[in-house]
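pasting for ref. prot 1 ->
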Amino acid sequence: MAQIDRSKPKRYKVQIWGKAAIGLYLWEHILEGPLNPTDMEAQWREGELQSGKVDFSFYTGPAVVQGHVPLEMNSLVLVLNGREQQKVSYSTRWLEHVQALVQSNTVSHVAVILLGNEQCNNDWIAPHLKRNGGFVDLLFLIYDSPWVNDKDVFQWPLGVATYREFPMIRPNAQLITSNRPYLCNFLGTVYKNSSREVLMNVLKQSGLDKECLTTAREKWVPQETTESLMRYQTALAQSELTLCPVGINTECYRIYEACSYGSVPVVEDVLTPGNCAAGPSSPLRLLKAAGAPFIFVSDWRELPAILERERGISQEQRVDRRRRLLEWYSGFRQQMKERFTEVIEENFFKTV
């Protein structure tokens, strides 16, 4: 009788199809996987990495189309955008394609990472979940959805705006120890009758706009120019604090982008309108549960007192705080990587 070789632990294969920009945050920032070619404009990009017992392979780009992705494994993670109706229609077609693969026994396990609607209106995907008779085993959902139960629906971080080509920042000594000329920054869209208007008025009336780097625009622009992206990144690198007023949802890319540069997010901690979970730790329960070292405000009129305290902090204390924020953010991404891998292992391969 042949001996069973137990020296090598069993490994599992999982394929990830990135059909939304948040797939790049998953792959490059959380899993820290390689991606070739490195050119963001490439039609087809792919990479491989090992995490836990799983060998992940990742495919993304416009040329990754239904029926033309090499499928050499029966476990699949699909990254989709459900933020608006046009995206929902596109994502639904991908789900229908994967459903056909499940029905033909080509695919056995399916997880979806979904950029949800900012008001948590995600009912369109509910029929696809296995608990409702569908085929999706696991859903990793962005924003504070009441669906999150840590059994088959898990909360996922929004991350940085990879669709605007915000890069992976590697901390260095300069980033940690530099003298930053500004107390705070806010570069962004100021909507009429919003708390962002209140913020700008507070800065102006208190004369703090001279100590903070601010650039306001009246209309949201989906894409940055090379120049505006560089200006924004420079503002993050040169400011002690980054002001993060709410938009349609409390969670915004700016929070994570500030963390990338060691600029402490000052987060407006209020629940935005819609169907996102209202609870003792909501909003931003994922970040709060991870012990995010942010400054939380409920009203921007609290800002002058915060900046007054900021003036009294020594450079040594600022450097220490910066280091701790960068370490926290690195640890948070590592925690998400381990959690994602464990959930996939436990749910896809528990019977193997």
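and prot 2 ->
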Amino acid sequence: MKSLIVIRHAKSDRDQPFLADIDRPLNNRGKRDAPVMGDVLKFRGQEPDLIVTSPAKRALETAELIAEAVGYDSRAIAVRDSIYLQGTPALLELIRSLENIYNRVYLIGHNPDLSELVTRLTGESLGTLPTCGIAAIKFPVDAWAYVMHGSGRLVFFDSPKQHP
């Protein structure tokens, strides 16, 4: 069985309009929410075998904060350009290319792609995945190559607003 933990990056700072989108960092709320959601994942026993993130600064910072909270070596975080605003086909291709030694993978990226991905993989619409929101999906397969639309089951959905 394979598990995909889809995580939208935490809240980013929009107060520096001169920064390119890819360079926007987390704001204070994002820096607070990411470790909390990492703690939630650890409490649920959902530690990752692999963390894969977008190269955007806000996503990478989210990945690093969550990694620290769950006890994952941040030097082992995989950065993939295909997660940064490349659409759901690119995300699905990335998922299908994962090595089968990994059973639980965190995928950290952006909307609208992640919200659409969750809907396509599970057949369930969560609406818009909030910042630092988490959707955990299980697939009854032994190889990532067999992940397809509608093949996943939503195990849980969680967000920072559920943990004030």
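Residues 2-162 form a domain with the Rossmann fold fold (CATH 3.40.50.1240).
The helical segments are 28-43, 57-70, 88-96, 113-122.
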